[in-house]
Amino acid sequence: MKNNSVKKLVEISLLIALEVILTRFCSINTATLRIGFGFLPIAIIAMMYGPLSAGVAYALGDLLGMMIFPSGSYFPGFTLTAFLTGVIYGLVLYRKPKTWPRIILAVCIVCLGMNLCLDTAWLHILMGQGYLALLPQRIFKAVVMIPVQTVLIGLVWKNIVLKVDKSYGVMPNA
């Protein structure tokens, strides 16, 4: 039992570190838009360990990223969005078949609900720009990221995570 807890903690910690790196260094950033791949480690945590683990991991990743590599002022709304994003991925994908329709559902809820609506509201509060003025750029991001996230989450799960776990003799909820 103790080994499983340590293994889980180490795997989640490594995926949080990967999230910070992908978000801070492998993304396109403007004042009102970030297009990156930090969602991928969190989706993996959600699929392997559940909604609470993924939510806490993404919130911690957001906080660590802001402390270690600040990029503007800290706003707690984005940490809330990060937590909710991890929870949503977990609720839709944890202990359920990782089918394309299920992955598309999770990605659409995150991209349209969290990134488009909630993050736009935080930007409106933070920057003072009109909500509707921010929407065209945010809609463009959602349209681009829905297929990108869907394909990457599905491919990484089926071609990397399952193969690595099979080699260690552990079979996650496929």
Protein described:
Strands 1-2 form a two-stranded antiparallel sheet. Helices cover 78% and strands 2% of the residues. It is mainly alpha-helical and 174 residues long. The chain is globular and about 50 Å long. It contains 6 helices and 2 strands; from the N terminus they run H-E-E-H-H-H-H-H. The chain starts with a helix and ends in a 7-residue tail after the last helix. This is Folate family ECF transporter S component. The chain crosses the membrane at residues 39-61, 73-94, 103-127, 139-157. It comes from Intestinibacter bartlettii. Keywords: Membrane, Transmembrane, Transmembrane helix.
Basic shape = globular
Main sheet attributes: strand count, strand direction, barrel closure: 2 strands, antiparallel
Number of strand elements: 2
Assembly of the depicted chains: single chain
What is the strand arrangement across the widest sheet? 1-2
Using the CA coordinates, give the radius of gyration. Answer: 16 Å
| β-sheet strand percentage | under 5%
Task: State the helix count.
Answer: 6
Distance between the termini: 22 Å
The total number of structural domains is: 1
Under CATH, the topology can be stated as Arp2/3 complex 21 kDa subunit ARPC3
Give the helix proportion (percent range): over 70%
- N to C succession of SSEs: HEEHHHHH
At the first level of CATH, the class is: Mainly Alpha
Protein name: Folate family ECF transporter S component
Keywords: Membrane, Transmembrane, Transmembrane helix
InterPro entries: ECF_S_folate_fam (IPR030949), ECF_trnsprt_substrate-spec (IPR024529)
Pfam families: ECF_trnsprt
